[in-house]
Amino acid sequence: MLQPYFLEHMVNLIHTPFHLFSTDKEIIQKFGARDIETLIFEKNPEFVEKVFSQKSEQHPVIFTKSSLVYAIFAQGLSKGAVIIAGPVTIGPLSQEILIQIRRYYNLGRKSGYIPPVCPLDKFVSGVLLLHWHLTGEELSAARLWKRNQQNYTATMNLQNRISQDIFERQESAGLHNPYEQELRELDSIEKGDIQALTKSISETYEGEIGVLAKDPLRSHKNVAVGNITLASRAAIRGGISVEKSFSLADSLIQQVEEIDNVPEVEAFKREAQFVYARLVDEENIQGGEKQKTKTNPLIGQVKDYIFSHLHDPIQVADIAEHMDINADYLSHLFSSQEKITITNYIRREKVRRGENLLKYSDYRIQEIAFYLGFCSQSHFARAFQQVVGMNPNEYRRKFGNRKKWKMK
Question: What distance in Å separates the CA atoms of residue 298 and residue 316, rounded to the nearest whole number?
Fold first, then answer.
């Protein structure tokens, strides 16, 4: 049974408007919807008819129309009634697309309508929560998408398209680049071996990179995204913090999207691999020779915590409390496996972030010091001198303002 209190708080959680429709397709009640969002349904009866035709008595249906995302619920309501969640967009839209949306929904170009933003995973969580509220069924995201497959043409045609593409590939007798060569690249990154990575990238082989889009630029960008993703995982296996590796991948992939020509994409893709290999190499050099035994998963949790709190003053006790573990045991474990104390590792990571900011940002040294949780600029300068061997001013004069292929 629908509880208005529940939907009111759903609006606050996922920033999504909801409309309750009667059997006659009339709006009975709305939650968190602005007048202009109600107009979308009132001025487009054919759209409402199409939405109603897509409803399912068994599960919520998620669909998209003109860049906007909706979900329709017919479960747990009086016969014929539906709830429509949306419209939302899963990310910011360009002015051109906003104008197209206003035209598509007959809102007028001058309406100024901007849809609310809700990331897709958050929207899906809201859909699952409302479905549970209406029916009592604990539906997982995987099962929700499985049940929605019939609504998506690409999903329904997936197997047919795979068979067709593989047949055409076999007919053209084309070969992909060898898997073993790719493994050598990833192994080089995992070990932080710059020389081996250079050698593996320079190998000649029969075969070619797959075509991942009809547009050549888009295809090369897709390959670059895949390479960066694989490199980020190899770096994690090499000892880089999960959060650091993932955050770096986010930055690199966003930068790939900003490139407008194929040669630069190719050069950027290769440099991104070397960025990861150098990170692992630095980790190995500064951490000393590590034990060959498998790293305890607690080590990764420590590194992730430190990476996520670099702008705060960090104490070992804070990390231990967050992980609900004895601080002395954690310190001993970290030191024995990483060959560096947690305190020194924190200082090293803060200085590394400081190096990046000194190279690629215009922040004053005092601002960088406070951003990284140091109590004063002089405290930051001392730590920086100990790790890098020069003070921040000297470092900025020598390495500052390097704009190309910047990373977070």
Answer: 13
**pLDDT of residue 209 exceeding 80:** no
332 falls within a domain: yes
Domain range for 44: 4-156
8 A C-beta contact, residue 374 and residue 387: no
State the residue for tokens 């010091």: 369
List the CATH number of the domain containing 77. 3.40.1840.10
Residues 138 and 222 placed together within one structural domain of the fold: no
Q: How far apart are the first and last CA of the chain?
A: 48
For residue 125, is it within any domain? yes
Domain count, the chain: 3
d(CA 371, CA 96): 37
- Same domain assignment for residues 242 and 355: no
Phi, psi of 160 (to 5 degrees): -65, -40
101 and 184 housed in the same domain:
no
The 10s digit of each residue's pLDDT in 374-389 is 888 999 999 999 888 9
Q: Report yes or no on 234 lying in a domain.
A: yes
Q: Are 203 and 181 in contact (CB under 8 A)?
A: yes
Are the C-beta atoms of 20 and 33 separated by less than 8 Å? Answer: no
- Kindly state the DSSP code that residue 176 receives in the 8-state scheme: B
Which positions ≥6 away from 347 have C-beta within 8 Å? 383, 386, 387
CB neighbour list of residue 35: distance below 8 Å, 6 or more residues apart: none
The CB-side HSE value for 196 (13 A sphere, CA atoms) comes to 16
Answer whether residue 405 is part of any domain: no
Give the pLDDT score at 203. Answer: 67
Return left, alpha or beta for 2; rule: phi > 0 is left, psi -120 to 50 is alpha, else beta. Answer: beta
Q: Which amino acid type is present at position 269?
A: K
**Backbone phi, then psi, for 407, in 5-degree steps?**
-130, 160
Q: Look up residue 89 and give its DSSP letter.
A: B
Cα torsion angle, 125, 129, 135, 140, sign: positive
* Per-residue model confidence as pLDDT tens digits over 62-76: 888 888 899 999 888
Q: Taking the CB of residue 336, how many other CB atoms lie within 10 A of it?
A: 12
Q: How many CA atoms lie within 13 A of 157 on its CB side?
A: 6
- Tokens in use for 90? 């899963």
